[in-house]
Amino acid sequence: MPSRHFLAATVLGAMAVSAGAFPVLAKAPSKAENAKAHAEATQGEPAFKALYKELIEINTTLSVGSCTKAAEAMKAHLVAAGYPESDLHIILSPERKQDGNIIAVLPGADPSLKALLLLAHIDVVEADRADWVRDPFKLTEDGGYYYGRGTADDKAMAAIFTDSMVRFKKSGYRPKRTIKLALTCGEESADTTPGASYIVDNYRSLIDAAFALNEGAGGQLDPATGKYIFNGVQAGEKVYQDYTLEVTNPGGHSSRPMPNNAIYHLAAGLLKVQQLDFPVEFNDATRGFFARMGKLQGGAMGADMIAASKGDKAAIERLKKDPGANSVLHTNCVATQLAAGHAPNALPQRATANVNCRIFPGHSQDEILKTIQDAINDPEVKVTLRDPAEKVSPPPPLTPEILGPIETLTEAMWPGVPVIPAMAAGATDGRFLTAAGIPTYGVSGIFADPATTNMHGLNERVKVTSLLEGREFLYRLAKMYAGGK
Ligand SMILES: [Zn+2]
Questions:
Q1: CA 187 to ligand 1 center in whole angstroms
Q2: In this predicted model, which residue has the larger pLDDT, 23 or 52?
Q3: DSSP 3-state assignment of 248?
Q4: Which CATH code fits 239-385?
Q5: For a FRET experiment, which of 180, 337, 476, 477 has its CA 20 to 30 Å from that of 219?
Q6: CATH architecture of the domain covering 4-237+397-482
Q7: Ligand 1 center to 369 CA (angstroms)
Q8: Angle between the 464-482 and 31-41 helix axes, to the nearest 10 degrees?
Q9: What confidence category does residue 432 fall into, taking pLDDT thresholds of 50, 70 and 90?
Q10: What secondary structure letter does DSSP report for 303?
Q11: Contact by Cβ (8 Å): 470, 160
């Protein structure tokens, strides 16, 4: 998950799925059932910790790591649990043999029900030993935390899902709905390593599912008190798109400056981009988010969130000053890179800039291109999409069938802690699956203080208790969706 992640609002997209499409296969647990499920779900923690440690300590960075090694290691656990080779698929992208992925299948009893897919990426961003307090590729427990690259992003969920599949098999659990696991490479480097998108394009049927669970949201802890504030579920994300602004010019000797200068044209164009203020828009989910989050937030900001959800213009203008809230109120574009000139004593012949946009769902990349071109309104400044537009889709619908079990289980495990839907401003691999017709939701039940988890940063960490609770939560949630015994 790119580090610019902000747990914000959800979007109830147009991809309407008729109510009842995913029949709820489990009801709210009674006290006794909850205790029994808790006892069952928390068994085998030592084996889980060993698997998690093994996964963390396999370097899966783009530079020197091997996802294939990690995929093979997880496969060994699944084979030992009794999965036949026919239900295990190591998938290697043709170019890079070290970028392996694995798909495992636990067949369900009811073929009329489409599968549940558990998705997690096993690659991690780079980490330089010299910068870290501890070795980033050694799992270290310290002060109630696990430290290491990928402890949060995303080997926590990869280990939990693999451990759950192992336990499902060993316990003889027969779900009604087939359960599939996909551990993928390349989430952090989609340009170089086509992990999830490669599987969607080449092995669509193998991962076909009614819906998928993925990274993208977690529980939030109060940094000061450690209090559980809310459990997040992410549905949909803004669309990531870079635009290139380029000005070329014949140039000349800098001792004879000309009025028509490539850098000045570009600079003027960038100031127009800076002034871009895309219309604020709400949908059911973003309105719902601000309304609910406003209650939790409290104070002036909370009041503004609630007022904004009712369309209060003044409150919206104030909220736009908060980078987090602003990132989910509308499309945002910002200049991120600049390059110009070829010599200090020569008039510049080329000036280029990158403008990164996070597009509010429902708008195409070309529509935003036109908006930028119209705002700059200078034929000297050529604006183009930096990379081909990814296939986009409306966000997955947050139906009662999806949200119900999450709310039921959250209430059972953390009484009184609300579930807050979110639309991510950052991107996950969920975008490839949702666009391919597999609605993908971000949910983990792993509570954290986002400020100190340090995803992509130095000394990445996860709270040990939160990781183990997330393990229980995801194990039970998968069973609630898949049903069976
Ligand atoms: Zn991630």
A1: 7
A2: 52
A3: strand
A4: 3.30.70.360
A5: 180
A6: 3-Layer(aba) Sandwich (3.40)
A7: 28
A8: 120
A9: very high
A10: H
A11: yes
User: Residue 55 corresponds to which tokens in the numbers above?
Assistant: 């996964």
CA dist., res. 350 & res. 444, Å (int): 47
One-letter amino acid of 41: A
Read off φ and ψ for residue 412, nearest 5 degrees: -70, -40
Residue ranges of the domains in the chain? 4-237+397-482, 239-385
Cβ atoms of 384 and 244 within 8 Å: the answer is: yes
* Per-residue pLDDT at 20: 41
Asked if 294 and 303 count as a contact pair (C-beta separation under 8 A), the reply is yes
Distance 167 CA to ligand 1 centre (A): 24
| CA 186 to centroid of ligand 1, rounded, Å | 10
d(CA 149, CA 461): 8
What's the 456 CA to ligand 1 centre distance in angstroms? 9
Task: Please give the Cα distance from 311 to 59 (Å, whole number).
Answer: 48
Give the three-class secondary structure for 158: helix
Question: How far apart, in Å, are the Cα atoms of 207 and each of 87, 116, 392, 424?
Answer: 12, 9, 19, 23
Report the separation in Å between the CA atom of 14 and the middle of ligand 1, taken as the mean of its atom positions: 26
Find the mean pLDDT for residues 406-432.
93
Å from CA of 457 to ligand 1 middle: 12
> Cα–Cα distance between 197 and 434 in angstroms, integer?
11
- Calculate the CA dihedral of residues 283, 284, 289, 294 and round it to 10 degrees: 90
Q: ω before 154 within 30° of 0 (cis)?
A: yes
Q: What number of residues does the chain have?
A: 485
Please give the distance, rounded to the nearest whole angstrom, from the Cα atom of residue 1 to the centre of ligand 1: 3
- Structure token digits, residue 288: 């719902």
Q: Do residues 363 and 14 make contact, with C-beta atoms less than 8 angstroms apart?
A: no
Which of these, 299, 301, 307, 326, lies nearest to 6 by C-alpha position?
326
Query: CATH topology of 4-237+397-482 equal to that of 239-385?
Result: no
Number of neighbours of residue 240 by Cβ within 10 angstroms: 20
Tens digits of per-residue pLDDT, 184-222?
A: 999 999 888 889 999 999 999 999 999 999 999 999 999
Q: Concatenate the DSSP letters of all residues of 176-207 into one string.
A: SS-EEEEEES-STTTTT--SHHHHHHH-HHHH
User: What is the DSSP code string of 384-447?
Assistant: EESSPPPP--PPPP--HHHHHHHHHHHHHHSTTPPEEEEEESS--THHHHHHTT--EEE----E
**Smallest Cα–Cα separation from 399: which of 9, 24, 8, 116?**
24
Radius of gyration of the chain, Cα coordinates, nearest whole angstrom: 24
pLDDT digits (tens, 9 = 90+) for 145-157: 999 999 999 999 9
